[in-house]
From TrEMBL:
<keyword id="KW-1133">Transmembrane helix</keyword>
<dbReference type="InterPro" id="IPR036465">
    <property type="entry name" value="vWFA_dom_sf"/>
</dbReference>
<keyword id="KW-0812">Transmembrane</keyword>
<feature type="domain" description="DUF58">
    <location>
        <begin position="201"/>
        <end position="356"/>
    </location>
</feature>
<keyword id="KW-0472">Membrane</keyword>
<dbReference type="InterPro" id="IPR002881">
    <property type="entry name" value="DUF58"/>
</dbReference>
<feature type="transmembrane region" description="Helical">
    <location>
        <begin position="7"/>
        <end position="26"/>
    </location>
</feature>
<protein>
    <recommendedName>
        <fullName>DUF58 domain-containing protein</fullName>
    </recommendedName>
</protein>
<dbReference type="Pfam" id="PF01882">
    <property type="entry name" value="DUF58"/>
</dbReference>
<feature type="transmembrane region" description="Helical">
    <location>
        <begin position="32"/>
        <end position="54"/>
    </location>
</feature>
Length: 440
């Protein structure tokens, strides 16, 4: 009996019968009609109960989960239901999804013919990394009578890890191989010159650079021969991710730390595909999660595992400690992308000497964020005095960000200043630009 549930159709029928009894006080001939309808109603309930409960496994269902969730992305969860009854049913599906999603009104209703399967999916978009625990998959089956339902319970417990974003890595890879990214138009990165890493001597074909003609080989073969060079590989690229309190700021449900971690994953994938070595570390009061710069088959998984449980610690980040650890840990000239956030010029000036120290020995790119709320205020037409004040203050903060960029460029430090949602594309573009220009 614990799986028996009364449907609203039964209660609406009783309400109708009750109204009929009320009218029977004024029209006595309605009394017998009300008695008959009430009797039919209870007989229908008994028949409905027998139809649903005489067969033990009337419904079969399973929830098909991905191996892991991709943080900040849409993840499909699939459900397969089969009707084993000899009659069509109406199935109400209530899946007990993880509490992090705060979906308290989850309900999907499907009509399934006898002996048929229905297959559908819904989408979950996690906003934080960690473990997500699913409860039971509940199916409430009703016969065509529709007075009662029988509950079927499947897959009582399941858990999934939510990892840094990985579902778009293939898309970024294809775009990077073409050296182009779409962001309000196509940005094509022009290849400047070539490296001096020799690959082979080949016969000249129209379009080859005549400056690469090998005259010795030409004289020996009596055919025009040219030197062919390949892109310089195995350059080291390190991503330093600030886990201090400034990175807790949320935008569209994700913190700046999560945006940075997702961008680090996307960039690592491109770095490895380009033949370079990807490494990373996180820092706040101390440096943690150090991954040496390598280009091995399991490097991307190693970086993903290191970033899986990274949290902000709400401390002021120690750039002095970062400078010392970088100098000790990275013993070759490398490209360093520092994911952090500076809101004021004073905040930058407190850390500038350490950033200048890093930039002396490495190619440093500081990645920090536009405040999308300020961006909205600046481009909004003010309609009141308060909104004018808000716009002026927003422009002041935006101007201070521009001063930060100028101050960093003064000391040869490159910058990526971007909206959080554009971070992945912008940092990959900066990496490709540095590669194309041979700056490293």
């Amino acid at each position: 009996m614990k799986n028996l549930y009364i449907n609203t159709r039964f209660f609406f029928t009783l309400i109708g019968v009750g109204i009929l009894y009320v009218f029977a006080f004024f029209f006595p001939f309605l009394m017998i009609i009300a008695h008959i309808i009430l009797l039919i109603c209870f007989l229908a309930v008994m028949v409905d109960y027998l139809l649903l409960f005489l067969q033990k496994n009337g419904v079969l269902a399973q929830r098909i989960l991905p191996e892991k969730l991709s943080n900040g992305d849409e993840n499909p969860v699939k459900i397969d239901i089969k009707n084993e009854y000899s009659f069509p049913i109406t199935a109400r599906i209530i899946d007990e999804i993880p509490f992090q999603f705060q979906k308290r009104d989850f309900l999907i209703e499907k009509k399934i013919d006898s002996g048929k399967n229905t297959y559908f999916q819904y989408v979950l978009e996690p906003k934080e990394r960690g473990e997500y625990h699913f409860g039971s998959l509940n199916i409430y089956a009703s016969s065509p009578i529709g007075f009662v339902s029988k509950r079927f319970i499947f897959q009582k417990d399941a858990s999934l890890p939510s990892y840094p974003s990985f579902v778009h890595l293939r898309k970024y890879e294809l775009m990077a191989l073409q050296n182009e990214f779409l962001l309000g138009g196509i940005k094509k990165i022009r290849k400047l010159g070539h490296t001096m890493e020799f690959e082979q001597i080949k016969e000249y074909v129209p379009g080859d650079d005549i400056r690469t003609i090998n005259w010795k080989a030409t004289s020996k073969t009596n055919r025009l021969m040219v030197n062919q060079f390949q892109d310089e590989k195995a350059q080291r690229v390190f991503m330093l991710i600030d886990t201090g309190r400034t990175m807790k700021m949320p935008f569209n449900g994700l913190s700046l730390l999560d945006y940075s971690i997702n961008a680090a994953m996307a960039l690592s994938h491109i770095i490895l595909k380009k033949g370079d070595r990807a490494g990373m570390m996180t820092f706040s009061k101390k440096t943690e999660n150090k991954i040496a710069g390598e280009n091995k088959s399991g490097q991307l998984k190693k970086i993903s595992e290191a970033l899986y449980n990274v949290k902000t610690d709400f401390f002021e980040s120690d750039f002095n400690r970062l400078y010392q650890d970088v100098k000790y840990s990275i013993n070759q000239r490398s490209l360093i992308l520092l994911f952090t956030n500076f809101e004021t010029l004073d905040g930058l000036n407190r850390q500038l000497k350490y950033l200048r120290g890093i930039a002396k020995n490495y190619l440093l790119v500081v990645v920090f964020f536009k405040n999308s709320e300020l961006h909205t205020l600046i481009h909004k037409d003010p309609e009141s005095t308060q909104e004018i004040y808000d716009e002026i203050i927003a422009e002041k903060f935006e101007f201070e960000k521009k001063l930060i960029i100028q101050e960093l460029r003064k000391y040869g430090i490159y910058t990526v200043y971007t909206l959080p949602e554009n971070l992945n594309i912008d940092v990959i573009n900066k990496y490709l630009e540095i590669k194309a220009r041979g700056i490293l």
